[in-house]
Write a sequence for this structure.
């Protein structure tokens, strides 16, 4: 009998601690539920361990704190921010959205999700109709969804230029710099086999030859689990092209560091998502020089207007770990959350989604530097047609892809990492702080 | 000394128990010191060598490596022990680099005995040294076992089904039945016991007849 | 082109052999698949990065720490998972798989989820037959070969090595020779962990450090053991070269994005048609 | 059979409780229950094959994936209504799984586990490169039709589905067939000796497992409304299924359900306390410790408590 009881007691110990834990969880839930009665709840959805996700979260945190410090919103209500982690996984993203919507009943959601994750939770957003601002994904397919079904997509806003606009301006860079200045005529495209890689590759390849006069010799798609890029670089060299155009988001540090380690004797430029952050240099252990990448604005090396600079100063004073500098989506979240709150003030809250959305569309923040338009946070009108691409971008941030970029900020800039670890914006000329440079081993 | 018993009488289990390979109750003493429950490593270190019934050789190792593995606990006297084994079994010296898996039954028995000798034991347990071997090889093995006892001064403990083989070789016999000792004593005296002779030694030399009821596993020895 | 494939194939295969050899040893000794094997590589790579790029100590200390950490992890996995589960193979596989997922979360907690590139062991690049080869990779390959051959010699010639073979081929036979299989198991688990962690330092030199980096080496190890058969070192070397060359050939001549498809296909075909592997023999 | 009435009453109370639950708890908890229900279905599907026969499958996400992708492709690309696409998905899972995995049933132990793991990885790779215009490639597909709207409808549907599957599996396992399956797990040779064909039994277990996986996968897809290779053919997903079945109590029907509910609620309760990756760390650790030190699962713990509190029903 004695031996039979002892596991029971041990078990009871577990059960007691389990109950304690459960009670704590319930108390925590009750506490937050109590807060909900008086406050505005903002949910964050994104990866809590990625730089981009954290940029959005921190941008939103600073905006929320500033709003709370200035007396709250909607008649003095305090804002609370509730994070939900996606781990960059689609299913986890859906669960996170459900958690924010159902368990926390948030009023507004700011997202730092990657394309696939956003696509996963969008059906939930349509179901719950919670005003949602996406600061990271740039997938044009989502804007197409807004065009197809404006009623269902009413709560959705994306305050980053869509990838198609990024690609269009990048073609200009190809024409002006790669072809015009460097005299390159042909390219080999090195693209990762992911959704993002596929989208950008398609957009760029379609336009490079007819618009910029650069022939696409070959497209090499690679598996993102690739260990050794030596054969791939050999293949690229054998294509006989003048330079490599890289499209990489998942393991872009690997590609660029192997490029540097192997001293591949061809220039490489393109989209290198990790090189958009200031931590890139440290992450690659310094093996990332000579690389250039397009980046949405604002980016590393980008001169900042006073308002955005103040945000960066606050950020740096507050957060000591990575990302040391907010990525572009940190800025988007900071300005975007404030705009969403302003729209809610005008619409009398977040409950009437149509009213909130029509007020959100009216938001227009123009930030100037040295007396000229520098950054602009506003949205395209529903029926407004962008003259160059000839299409509409409802609920997407207003961008300008035609010189002299006095209508809005450009959809992207090209940034350059030099071999000494410094960075500069090299295109468009209006925003340039440095020159396009090749790695020292490329003749 | 030999332990005689039918298949399943508990001979192998007894040896495994002595080695500490299986869990046992009671006490096992070697030269007055208890080795009960201390495991095979201790048993080997204390001076017990074991040549098991199925040999448990290392099939893809050479003959030489099989022997050397036996020297795990006695590394200081490898050369000397190897020489002894090669003197006893010259054939193992010839087949030094052959893989154990390709050796004949008799050779395997020799490797098994040789490997046990490599640990320089004081007591050698030999389980079924003649099972499945040709009579000529049996005689060879018997001779080498005698030499181990007489020339090397080892105590050799044999487990045998073949009582005739055992009685010729051993000074003392122990008869085991279903895990219990049925009889024990000097070989010559036991050979006079009519009941035992009819049960274990049979009519034809080398022959063996299993008794009904002896086949139940007899692990309950204490 | 052919020469390039040859050179790149050899370089990659050497690394793959080192990645898989520890996994093979464990499989050889207890027929256990340690699905946390990839975690050694992750731990080793991150330890190297931590010492070199966060603490700022010499790289060699990083390598040493990585090896010690890996060996320690090996012993810990043996003591805390394999022993309590009494060598139940399926249970060990499931438990080590769960462990790998936990360690991945631990890495995210400590280092974050963004990828990191450790400094190369040896900087610079050398050109052989018009193929650029990073010194660090050349060094890693040579080191892998030296380690594998010394390991082979160790197993063939030393007492401990023979004891390892003995335990692998016939545990009872080993026991009656007085070999303490527990001690041998600990030795093998620590060797496996140490080599895994070292392979992690080299592997990270090729690619990057990321919390999910354990999956690829695990799949390589599984492929090597499955295609090669029960843990033989020579079989490991041979199959590592089959897989390494296959990857380079697929990447260069067929389609880079199909790299993984071919490796998986090889595992499945090998398992279905030759379940004991190409070199299936009970030895290490 | 006086316990019959007693049990019947209990079942009636339980059913009524399940029915009125949506009006008692918040929709957040209902959402968690839905996820737990689907995880329970997957865990039962795993357990029917692996928990009984001892053939550990690491490829359950592969089967679930076939079902999920079939219905997703049919509804999204070919506008097939769900009434047809879901049965089709189940059929394709059974046939597809049979073609690919049946040869693997010749393999034993670790080898079977590995070939199923390799199949899952292969599927992950293939979905991305073969006809991405149909499969949606790496990005998968979103905006799939959903069966229900709102938490309580989703709850009723998933609970009904889960209970039907569980009940069917439970009744099946009580037949001689079920006993024979468990016997394979103990001693395959003995089963053969008893004049039963292990191959047929294994194929049956496999088909039943594929049926449940395909059905669960298809409904799950139409619940989520999206599908992505990275979320389906993934070691973490596999880990969750395995952990649910094992820590609940494998070889039973109620065990995997308990495990699935325990794990899902653990993960959701941890969310407000540990929003980031710490959650997975704790979650994994709990799963490992339970698996290591409570191999019979939560079911055994509950049984022990029951015996302690109410005494052994068999003796009392």
């Amino acid at each position: 009998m004695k031996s039979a009881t002892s596991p029971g007691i041990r078990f009871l110990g577990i059960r007691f601690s389990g109950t304690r834990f459960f009670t704590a969880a319930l108390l925590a839930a009750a506490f937050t539920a109590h807060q909900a009665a008086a406050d505005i709840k903002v949910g964050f959805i994104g990866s809590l361990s990625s730089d981009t996700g954290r940029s959005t979260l921190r941008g939103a945190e600073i905006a929320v704190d500033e709003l709370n410090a200035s007396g709250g919103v909607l008649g003095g209500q305090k804002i609370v921010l509730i994070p939900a982690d996606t781990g960059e996984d689609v299913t986890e993203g859906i669960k996170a959205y459900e958690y924010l919507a159902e368990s926390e009943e948030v009023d507004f959601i700011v997202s730092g999700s990657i394309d696939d994750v956003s696509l996963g939770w969008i059906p939930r957003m349509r179901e719950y109709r919670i005003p949602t601002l996406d600061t990271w994904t740039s997938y044009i397919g989502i804007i197409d969804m807004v065009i197809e079904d404006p009623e269902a997509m009413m709560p959705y806003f994306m305050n980053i230029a869509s990838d198609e606009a990024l690609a269009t301006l990048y073609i200009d860079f190809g024409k002006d710099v790669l072809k015009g200045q460097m005299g390159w005529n042909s390219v080999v495209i090195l693209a990762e086999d992911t959704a993002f890689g596929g989208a950008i590759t398609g957009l760029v390849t379609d336009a490079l030859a007819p618009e910029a006069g650069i022939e696409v010799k070959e497209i090499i798609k690679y598996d993102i689990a690739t260990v050794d890029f030596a054969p791939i670089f050999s293949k690229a060299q054998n294509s006989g092209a003048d330079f490599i155009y890289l499209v990489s988001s998942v393991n872009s540090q690997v590609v660029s560091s192997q490029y540097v380690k192997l001293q591949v004797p061809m220039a490489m430029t393109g989209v290198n998502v990790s090189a958009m952050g200031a931590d890139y240099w440290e992450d690659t252990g310094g093996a990332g020089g000579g690389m250039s990448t397009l980046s949405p604005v604002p980016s590393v090396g980008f001169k900042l207007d006073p308002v955005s600079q103040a945000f960066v100063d606050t950020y740096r004073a507050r957060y000591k770990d990575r990302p040391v500098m907010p990525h572009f989506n940190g800025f988007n979240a900071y300005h975007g959350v404030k705009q969403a709150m302003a729209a809610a003030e005008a619409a009398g809250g977040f409950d009437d989604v149509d009213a909130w959305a029509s007020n959100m569309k009216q938001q227009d923040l123009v930030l100037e530097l040295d007396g000229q338009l520098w950054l602009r946070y506003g949205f395209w009108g529903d029926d407004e047609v962008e003259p160059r691409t000839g299409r509409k971008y409802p609920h997407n941030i207003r961008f300008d892809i035609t010189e002299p970029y006095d209508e809005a900020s450009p959809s992207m800039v090209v940034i350059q990492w030099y071999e000494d670890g410094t960075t500069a914006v090299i295109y468009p000329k209006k925003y340039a702080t440095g020159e396009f440079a090749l790695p020292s081993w490329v003749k | 000394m030999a332990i005689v018993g039918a298949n399943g009488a508990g001979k192998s289990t007894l040896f495994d128990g002595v080695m500490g390979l299986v869990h046992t109750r009671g006490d096992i003493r070697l030269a007055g010191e208890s080795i009960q429950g201390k495991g095979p490593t201790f048993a080997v270190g204390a001076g017990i060598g074991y040549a098991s019934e199925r040999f448990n050789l290392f099939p893809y190792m050479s003959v030489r490596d099989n022997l050397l593995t036996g020297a795990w606990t006695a590394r200081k006297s490898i050369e000397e022990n190897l020489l002894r084994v090669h003197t006893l079994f010259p054939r193992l010296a010839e087949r030094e680099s052959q893989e154990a898996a390709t050796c004949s039954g008799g050779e395997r028995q020799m490797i098994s005995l040789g490997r046990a000798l490599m640990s320089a034991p004081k007591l050698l347990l030999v389980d079924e040294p003649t099972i499945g071997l040709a009579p000529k090889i049996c005689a060879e093995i018997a001779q080498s076992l005698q030499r181990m006892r007489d020339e090397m001064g080892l105590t050799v403990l044999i487990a045998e089904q073949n009582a005739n083989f055992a009685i010729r070789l051993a000074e003392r016999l122990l008869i085991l039945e279903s895990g219990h000792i049925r009889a024990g004593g000097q070989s010559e005296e036991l050979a006079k016991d009519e009941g035992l002779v009819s049960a274990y030694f049979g009519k034809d030399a080398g022959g063996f007849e299993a008794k009904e009821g002896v086949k139940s596993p007899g692990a309950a020895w204490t | 082109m052919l020469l390039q494939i040859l050179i790149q194939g050899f370089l990659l295969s050497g690394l793959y052999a080192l990645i898989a050899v520890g996994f093979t040893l464990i499989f050889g000794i207890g027929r256990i698949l340690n699905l946390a094997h990839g975690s050694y590589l992750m731990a080793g790579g991150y330890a190297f990065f931590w010492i070199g790029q966060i603490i700022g100590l010499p790289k060699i200390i990083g390598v040493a720490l990585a090896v010690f950490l890996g060996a320690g992890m090996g012993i810990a996995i043996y003591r805390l998972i394999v022993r309590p589960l009494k060598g139940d193979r399926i249970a060990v596989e499931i438990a080590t798989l769960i462990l790998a997922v936990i360690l991945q979360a631990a890495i995210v907690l400590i280092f974050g989820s963004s990828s990191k590139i450790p400094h190369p062991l040896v900087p610079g690049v050398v050109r052989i037959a018009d193929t650029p080869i990073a010194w660090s990779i050349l060094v890693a390959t040579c080191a892998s070969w030296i380690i594998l051959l010394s390991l082979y010699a160790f197993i063939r010639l030393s007492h401990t090595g023979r004891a390892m073979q003995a335990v692998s081929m016939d545990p009872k036979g080993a026991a009656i020779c007085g070999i303490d299989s527990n001690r041998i198991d600990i030795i093998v688990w620590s060797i496996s962990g140490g080599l895994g962690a070292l392979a992690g330092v080299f592997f990270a030199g090729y690619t990057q450090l990321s919390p999910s980096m354990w999956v690829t080496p695990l799949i390589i190890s599984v492929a090597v053991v499955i295609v090669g058969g029960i843990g033989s070192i020579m079989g490991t070397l041979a199959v590592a070269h089959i897989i390494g060359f296959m990857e380079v050939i697929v990447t260069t001549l067929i389609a880079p994005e199909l790299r993984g498809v071919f490796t998986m296909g090889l595992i499945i075909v090998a398992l279905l048609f030759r379940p004991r592997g190409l070199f299936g023999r009970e030895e290490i | 059979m006086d316990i019959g009435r007693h049990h019947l009453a209990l079942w009636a109370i339980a059913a009524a409780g399940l029915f009125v639950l949506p009006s008692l708890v918040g929709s957040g908890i209902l959402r968690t229950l839905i996820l737990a229900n689907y995880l329970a279905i997957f865990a039962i599907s795993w357990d029917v094959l692996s928990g009984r026969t001892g053939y550990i499958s690491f490829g359950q996400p592969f089967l679930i994936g076939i079902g999920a992708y079939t219905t997703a492709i049919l509804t999204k690309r070919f506008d097939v209504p769900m009434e047809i696409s879901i049965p089709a998905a189940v059929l394709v899972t059974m046939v597809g799984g049979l073609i690919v995995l049946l040869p693997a049933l010749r393999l034993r132990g670790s080898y079977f586990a590995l070939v199923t793991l390799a199949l899952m990885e292969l599927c992950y790779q293939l979905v991305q490169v073969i006809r991405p215009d149909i499969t949606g490639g790496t990005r998968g597909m979103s905006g799939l039709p959903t069966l229900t709207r709102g938490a309580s409808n989703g709850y009723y549907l998933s609970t009904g589905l889960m209970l039907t599957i569980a009940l069917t599996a439970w009744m099946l396992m009580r037949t001689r067939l079920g006993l024979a399956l468990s016997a394979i797990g103990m001693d395959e040779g003995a089963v053969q000796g008893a004049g039963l064909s292990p191959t047929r039994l294994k194929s049956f277990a496999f088909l039943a497992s594929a049926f449940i996986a395909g059905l669960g996968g298809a409904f799950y897809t139409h619940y989520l409304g999206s599908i992505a290779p990275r979320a389906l053919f993934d070691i973490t997903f596999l880990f969750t299924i395995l952990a649910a079945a094992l820590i609940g109590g494998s070889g039973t029907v109620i065990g995997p359900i308990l495990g699935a509910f325990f794990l899902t609620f653990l993960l959701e309760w941890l969310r407000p306390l540990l929003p980031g990756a710490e959650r997975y760390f704790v979650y994994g650790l709990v799963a490992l410790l339970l698996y290591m030190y409570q191999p019979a699962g939560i079911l055994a713990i509950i049984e022990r408590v029951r015996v302690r509190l109410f005494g052994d029903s068999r003796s009392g």
